[in-house]
Write a structure and sequence with these properties.
Radius of gyration: 16 Å
Helix content: 25-40%
CATH topology: 434 Repressor (Amino-terminal Domain)
Number of domains: 1
Strand order of the largest sheet: 1-2-3
Largest sheet: 3 strands, antiparallel
CATH class: Mainly Alpha
Length: about 90
């Protein structure tokens, strides 16, 4: 899922495409000695749908992010990055 935000300018509209990247989550998870992503379901108390969204790089709720951070003993910035891609429309 990709979210859009708009910023107006005198000559047009700038379109910001917001994308989430969970690469840091999977690196941290692997460094902790976990091999199977599905173990995160039980560790963090998340659903299979949330795991699927994480794998696809889709946005998830802050509640789910909080559960994951608690399970991995980390902060939000340790597991995800929000990238802003600028484009003109």
């Amino acid at each position: 899922m990709i979210f859009f935000t708009f910023k107006t300018q005198r000559r047009g509209i700038i379109l910001y495409i917001m994308q989430v990247d969970y690469t840091k989550l999977w690196v941290r998870y692997k460094e902790m000695g976990h091999k199977n992503k599905t173990d995160l379901i039980e560790m963090a108390g998340i659903s299979t749908n949330i795991l699927a969204k994480l794998t696809k790089g889709e946005f998830i709720s802050m509640d789910s992010i909080q559960r994951i951070c608690k399970a991995l003993n980390c902060d939000v910035g340790d597991i995800c990055v929000i990238n802003k891609v600028e484009g003109n429309s």
